[in-house]
Amino acid sequence: MNKGTVKFYNDLKGFGFIKDDDSSKEFYVNASGLKEDIRENDKVSFDLEEGKKGLNAVNVKVV
């Protein structure tokens, strides 16, 4: 399980990006990968899953 910070999230469009605490890489997150609602600057935990355009954050939860 990875930990990071929500850098951007658009509720209306249902997507955003999470910056990983360890690697500083940013990962795409879609509303379908959320376990609970998130907002910008939330600290979250997440798993990574291969998507069509690279790794996506899934099972995202606020910590």
What does this structure look like?
- This protein is an all-beta fold and 63 residues long.
- It has a single domain (2-62), classed as Beta Barrel (OB fold (Dihydrolipoamide Acetyltransferase, E2P)).
- Helix content is 0%, strand content 60%.
- It contains no helices and five strands.
- It has strands at 2-10, 15-20, 26-30, 43-51, 54-62.
- The protein has a five-stranded mixed beta barrel.
Task: Please tag this protein with its features.
0% helix; 63 residues; mainly beta; 5-stranded mixed beta barrel; OB fold (Dihydrolipoamide Acetyltransferase, E2P)
Short description:
The protein is built from no helices and 5 strands. It is mainly beta and 63 residues long. A 5-stranded mixed β-barrel has the order 1-2-3-5-4.
Q: Helix amount, in percent? A: under 10%
Tell me which CATH architecture applies here: Beta Barrel
Overall CATH class:
Mainly Beta
What's the CATH superfamily, by name? Nucleic acid-binding proteins
Oligomer: single chain
Percent strand equals over 45%
| Biggest beta sheet summary | 5 strands, mixed, barrel
Strand line-up across the major sheet: 1-2-3-5-4
Radius of gyration: 10 Å
